[in-house]
Amino acid sequence: MMIADFFQELWPSSFGTPRGSIHDFLAPELYEDAGRIAEYLRGGHEIFSVMGASTDVLGSGRTVLGGDSLFSDGEWIWRGDLWFYVRTHHVELPDDFLARIRKNQYVVPPEDEPGIIEIAEYIDARI
The whole model's pTM is what? Predict the structure, then answer.
C-alpha cells in the first residue's frame, strides 16, 4: 500500500521516509478535474477516524474537520484533508494514484474487508 500524501508535514516518521515537503508539490494550476478528484478522496473507505479539525500546514489559517482521519481505496491511503490541499493549494498527487482515480472514473472501488483490515493493522502498528 502507498501513501498518497506522504509529506513530512502530515505523516509521522513511523511511516517511513516521506516524499518530501508539501511545499515541493504545489502545482501552479488546479487539476481541471479537481472537483471530481476531491469527491474520490472524500469518498474513501474510512480506516481511522479522528474527531476535531486539522490546521492547514501551508498557512491559510483554515481548518479541515476530520483532517487527521485516514482513508483508503484498498490500494492507497491518505489523510482526510488531502482533498482540501488538492483544491486549495493545488497539491500534486502521485502519478500512479491520479491514474488510478481517473481509471476508476472517480469512484472508490467497493470495500474489500480483508484488505481494509490489513491496511488498518498496518496503520495501527505505526501510530
Answer: 0.93
